[in-house]
Amino acid sequence: MITESALPRVEKTHKLDDGVVRNLGLVGVLLLLVVIGIITRPELYSDPTWVKNNFLTILQQASAIGVVTVGMTFVIIGGGIDLSVGAIIALAGVWATTLATQSYGAAGMIFTALVVGLAVGLVNGVLIAYGKLVPFIATLAMLVSARGLAAQISGKQTQVSTNETINSIASTKLLGIPLLVWILGLVVLAGWVLLNRTTFGRRTVAVGGNPEAARLAGINVKGHTLLLYMLSGLCCGIAAIMLTSQATSAQAAMANLYELDAIAAAIIGGTLLSGGRGTIVGALFGVLVFSTITNLFAINNLSTEVQNMVKGGIIVAAVLIQQFRYRSLTNLLRRRNDPDKPSQHPSR
Amino acid sequence: MTQISRRNILLGSAAAGAGLALTACTSNDPASNAQVKTDTSGNANAAAGQKVIIGFSAPAADHGWIAAITNNAKAQAKQYSDVELRTVEAGTDAAAQRAALSTLIAQKPNVIVMLPYDGKELNAAGLEAMQAGIPVVNLDRAFPSAAAYRLQIKGDNYGMGLAAGKYIGDQLKAKGVSNPIIGEIPGIDSLELTQERTKGFNDALAVYGFKVANRRPAEFTADSGQAAATALLQALPKMDALWNHDDDQGIGVLAAIKQANRSEFFMVGGAGSKSAIDGIAKDDTVLKATVTYSPSMASSAISLARLIGQGKGMSDLVELQVPKEITLASETITKDNASKYAPLGF
């Protein structure tokens, strides 16, 4: 048993653990993947231009899903889940690329995508916070209906974007770095500041960790939950424009299974699925691990089925490590706090 | 759940629609680009005959090809004064389509044209209709039992691969490339149709002694095509030819090629979408050809269902009745014949 006086110290140790050890571990995994790439395709890695290009490509392919993952991380830390992110992207993308919207130009398209994202997030938030629906059910229903609405609006056809400004976002570079990567960087930075340096961030952790305690502490839990889903929706709106620009089109089936990739990346990055704990930088590394695996499999012409199995294995490993370390840390603390009492897990 | 969905749709669309009301119309007018047979001069079969009620069912899919199938069937039926088309929504799975078909069978149409969600799962529905005395025209996804259909009209997936491989082989041989680097971007890899296309492609390339260097599957969508192509282009810094199985995902594949600034190879598409045919005619991208898998088969299916209903045969054939199996040829569209095929683009 952990004594109550030991609790704050557990939390403190975990923070340090999260921030440094986990991210170092993920950086290690990334480096390992690169080393495997170098060993298996040395002729590609011997060309510095290719290496630089490949690095930027990995980042670029991680950009849209990375933005979604930032929103997802907030929702999960806040004790919820958003299964509708892929569907929101499809709806926002399809709506922004209808001919009527396109006639308003790039600004009109971007505005539409962001408003649609925010609006769907608002509906999710209202259903969950005020309608008292379980987040899983509410966002699952939204997944189905938003894709349905997207199919309706698009006439079930691929909506091609003829707007050159939108289409050129994906190929534009600033200081040699793709614009999409800059957008990802900005969203990650904003997410990090919001989570770690503002009242909003502290409230998110409090609401996810113990909603009742948060309510007693004077936090408007319902209002905060609503904001979290709107934040996730907004991230989807941004991602919709990024993906539309990359594919120069949008359709109802776009961003398929993004919800699972985003949840997996957040969890690999150290976010607790039960809420109350998580980091933005970790989530970013989670996305990069997936993006790098895809790249590694592509350059070695390995099948995507095996790639998916490896991805699944990494998710399981990440959670196992998380549990293992949590247990061993608790044990360590227990021994430290009460040296006379033997550990309940003497083997560890 | 239904209630939630409805509520979500209402709330979601109302909220998002505020201030954006005029964006709600779509860019797709279903009737405007349908493929119909209109020129019937000199065809005795075109003369109005006995009235035929045709029941029609296709899955509600979100792919342009399936949308074109339904549009074509409706547009072709309108061409005949003696045809009444009764369509039923087939929902999104085999069970829903089975339920829809039993209500259709109960209405006793003269003929049923259906694109089954899955041929194996809807075999029983085909048998039921046939036993009720309603001839079934199976569109594209074969029933395992020959007793479950009167006519089967489908595309040729293996032939698509064969045509794409032959075009690429011929071009590379003409250029004198001996050890070409060939890329392939199929659609959903677990589907039998994808496997048949790939097999045809490999068989055709083998004739020239060529093989695929790298293969990255996508999901028949433009965004997945973009991702798969980006990965493929990284893996093959130099490439000679690329076959992309599907023109819808090809929009994303072409975007990725443009973003990567690559043009040292040529690309062949698949299915024959309008944008692909237009692109081939313009000749301003790496896309030089596409092999057809045309949804025009739905228009033909309605025409043939009408003949079956009227007990007539196909006028150029000796037989008095419509044949039992028709497989469309996969044709190769290049710059030379693009204008001829433009009306068939979907």
UniProtKB/TrEMBL annotation, chain A:
It is a multi-pass membrane protein. The chain crosses the membrane at residues 20-39, 59-92, 104-127, 133-153, 174-195, 226-245, 280-299. Its main location: membrane. The keyword Transmembrane applies. CDD domains: TM_PBP1_transp_AraH_like. GO terms for molecular function: transmembrane transporter activity. Keywords: Cell membrane, Membrane, Transmembrane, Transmembrane helix. GO terms for cellular component: plasma membrane. It is found in: Cell membrane. This is Ribose transport system permease protein.
From TrEMBL, chain B:
Its main location: other. Gene3D superfamilies: 3.40.50.2300. Keywords: Signal. It comes from the Bacteria. The keyword Cell cycle does not apply. One of its GO terms (molecular function) is carbohydrate binding. Residues 1-23 form the signal peptide. The keyword Signal applies. One of its GO terms (cellular component) is cell envelope. InterPro entries: Peripla_BP_I, SBP_2_dom, TAT_signal. Coiled coil: none annotated. Residues 54-312 form the Periplasmic binding protein domain. Belongs to the bacterial solute-binding protein 2 family. This is Ribose transport system substrate-binding protein. It comes from Actinoplanes octamycinicus.
